[in-house]
């Protein structure tokens, strides 16, 4: 990655009247990276993407593409092709004509147009459909047409707005592989908006998590998964146990947090460095680090919880439990281990984890 | 509806009633067709015998030809103007939101709800006052007012079938607004545009009330028919009626075929 | 995707736009159009022609009618004036009020009769026909719109006159002749000719959208077949049924052909009054008075009908 980012959002914000869609944000997107912007409905992720595409004007701040301010450039003068959720293929044009469209708009001659389009049709393995009406293609084929249409000008960046959301699960996984490979081979930047955690985490180099128009965390998938920086992210990812409480003690590289479910210890991480005893804090521990046992373990963090239900998730299962203060808790276990424990709803069980497994965030 | 919700007498009763309704609606249309070939001047049963007399009389009547000429000139001009205005308004409604939009839409869509006598009188008085009454142009002006809303409705319907991101996708691929209009919006709307041309032409073809007020001496064919109606019994009306019916139906069926083609317009492969 | 994420769907490129992104708006977002309203040549090219045309040739004539109603006529010439004479003369004549009452009654009767005649037909089309048959029925109901109303009225003259087709058929079985032309009956036949297809189509479109599970639920709750029609189907389609009746009222209120050529024209209706007054010389200002009274009446009726159609029950 170079020091000069390909795209820079500098205090870029967007409001519709009194409604703030995107709060002023900083974001740098590097050459050749696969960046996923993720969040739930209405978090501002698509607005962010549309501002980059030139389909929405920021109400404040500056967007730079390769160092140039592009705020006032209409979308047809930017080279930021986008793949729409609906794909937005032109129904009155054939597959080839769709792919040739942007070349035609740029005044590329007929012969060259055809040759360049054919190259992409072949690359996307849709040559055989070149003269078909786009309405007669399957979902996956339409997807490939949309990609070819956006990539035919060989842009430096490709924007994707939930392009896979209309596909069935199996096709989704296949198209994910197609997209990942394409991005690696082309070496261009992909900015991918999605609400799906699995899409974002399996493809992206870096993930941006947004909520209510604000960036909550930016980082590599593993980093976000292991150490969510805010309570929102921890809860959004859905695989963490979250306890709200107060700092009881912070000294010597460790921190102890007092919560209604008990007092737990964790290493003193960078986020919690400024915390003092008495401050509000949130204790987070991932569900795959949770141990379950019939009796209280001798050391480490532990609490007694009530089993609510088991959820079958492929090779593993998730046990949903309720803590003493009514906390919603979860533990991810292998089926073998669960078979040994023989849990049924209503049973009391001890949950425990080592001191290194949890981490502490400032604030309730 | 469930299987238990059917009783044979009710079913057949309703069907018979429906047939009667259609009979009532089509009786006058069929009668004018039949009597246009009947030899008697005073039509009654039994039919007097097949004849093309009335067709010959109509063909030999210079007034009819003059009326037809005026109708055609007005119809064609009206359809082009009304469709152009309707397209613009439909696109405006599709794409823009602005202060006073509901007033804009009301102005664009209300004319057909105003009774034709009132519209006719208002047009006559207004056009006479600015020196524009009594010609084919007066008929054209009035008919565009009445037809543009139909054109707008037809094209707006088509636009609402369009994926709204299609236009943005064209911009995103390097088309300016004007170019996207030419390469995306108009091709997408093409069937509806032709349908609007035919429907507005058909409406203009049949309109008699407002034309009667404003046309002065340049009467259109329907106004001539109104004249015949005021005079004595004349089977010529049946002939003209049959002719106008066939013309209008051709236009409507053409429009219908175009609208049926829907989203898969244009160049389907294989 | 969400409302706010999608808010820019119909929106265009950023510069030179005179609107906010269209269509779906996030909850709490204000009405569009406050921020950045730059008028673009592109937008005006499409929006302006319709606006100008309808302002000049639709709105202006209607407004001119108001001015005209105060003009005076001297020596068979109209002169701009502010003279309430036309109003007092017209509204002071009993002939006018008789015509007014008669027109109102005829149109109200037409709205009720047409709705009643149309309902079983539209019900049958909506609930009893197959998809294909329904499409054909709709197509057939559209045809009359493209046949000349005048020609159809003339045809009815052939059917209804004293020695017309119907009386000829009746004579064969020793009945009649019944005078049918130049009566209220004749007018009503003409009004039905004018309105029936439209009313059936409008009723049909509201009946098609009546949720079929409502009907099943009613039956399930022991509501009989006929009762379900009146207790469930009609209320559920109320908007469409009311609007259909309203259209029938508006159309017949302004029609002068049926009352004249099938109803005999004596005593006249308001529309006949307008055509007579206009075509017999220069009494346009008085015709304008009649027209304006008609518009006022229609506005009141339309407003009341729409209020009734969309009235919610309960709070």
UniProtKB/TrEMBL annotation, chain A:
Keyword ATP-binding on entry: yes
Extract the InterPro entries matched here: AAA+_ATPase (IPR003593), ABC_SmlMolc_Importer (IPR050093), ABC_transporter-like_ATP-bd (IPR003439), ABC_transporter-like_CS (IPR017871), Mo/tungstate-bd_C_term_dom (IPR008995), P-loop_NTPase (IPR027417), Transp-assoc_OB_typ2 (IPR013611)
- Which keywords does the record carry? ATP-binding, Nucleotide-binding, Transport
Residues forming the ABC transporter domain are 7-237
A GO CC term attached to the entry: ATP-binding cassette (ABC) transporter complex
Instruction: Reply yes or no: does the keyword Ubl conjugation apply.
Output: no
Q: Which GO terms describe its molecular function?
A: ABC-type transporter activity; ATP binding; ATP hydrolysis activity
The record's PANTHER family line, in alphabetical order, gives: SPERMIDINE/PUTRESCINE IMPORT ATP-BINDING PROTEIN POTA (PTHR42781), SPERMIDINE_PUTRESCINE IMPORT ATP-BINDING PROTEIN POTA (PTHR42781:SF4)
| Sequence similarity | Belongs to the ABC transporter superfamily.
* Name of the protein described by the UniProt record: Spermidine/putrescine transport system ATP-binding protein
Q: Which organism does this sequence originate in?
A: Amaricoccus macauensis
UniProtKB/TrEMBL annotation, chain B:
Q: Which InterPro entries match?
A: Bact_Polyamine_Transport, MetI-like, MetI-like_sf
Question: What's one GO-annotated cellular component?
Answer: plasma membrane
Q: Which terms under GO biological process does the entry name? A: transmembrane transport
Q: Does the keyword Transport apply?
A: yes
Listed transmembrane segments: 12-37, 72-91, 103-128, 134-155, 192-217, 237-259
Its localization reads:
Cell membrane
Query: Where does the ABC transmembrane type-1 domain lie?
Result: 68-255
Q: Which CDD domains match?
A: TM_PBP2
Would you identify the family this protein belongs to, as annotated? Belongs to the binding-protein-dependent transport system permease family. CysTW subfamily.
What is this protein identified as? Spermidine/putrescine transport system permease protein
Instruction: Give the originating organism.
Output: Amaricoccus macauensis
From TrEMBL, chain C:
Query: Gene3D superfamilies given for it?
Result: MetI-like (1.10.3720.10)
Output the GO biological process annotations, alphabetical, semicolon-separated.
Answer: transmembrane transport
The record, for CDD domains, names:
TM_PBP2
Q: Which PROSITE patterns match?
A: ABC_TM1 (PS50928)
Segments of this protein annotated with the region Disordered:
1-34
Recorded superkingdom: Bacteria
Q: Which family does it belong to?
A: Belongs to the binding-protein-dependent transport system permease family. CysTW subfamily.
In the record, what lineage is assigned to the organism producing the protein?
Bacteria, Pseudomonadati, Pseudomonadota, Alphaproteobacteria, Rhodobacterales
Domain ABC transmembrane type-1 per the UniProt entry, residue ranges? 100-305
Sequence ranges of Low complexity compositional bias: 21-33
GO cellular component terms? plasma membrane
Kindly report the protein's main subcellular placement as a broad class.
Answer: membrane
Indicate the transmembrane segments per the record. 51-73, 99-124, 136-154, 188-210, 230-253, 287-310
Bilayer topology: Multi-pass membrane protein
PANTHER family reported for this sequence? INNER MEMBRANE ABC TRANSPORTER PERMEASE PROTEIN YDCU-RELATED, INNER MEMBRANE ABC TRANSPORTER PERMEASE PROTEIN YDCU-RELATED-RELATED
Keywords, alphabetical: Cell membrane, Membrane, Transmembrane, Transmembrane helix, Transport
Asked if the keyword Transmembrane belongs to this entry, the reply reads yes
Subcellular localization(s) per the UniProt record: Cell membrane
Name of the protein this chain belongs to: Spermidine/putrescine transport system permease protein/putrescine transport system permease protein
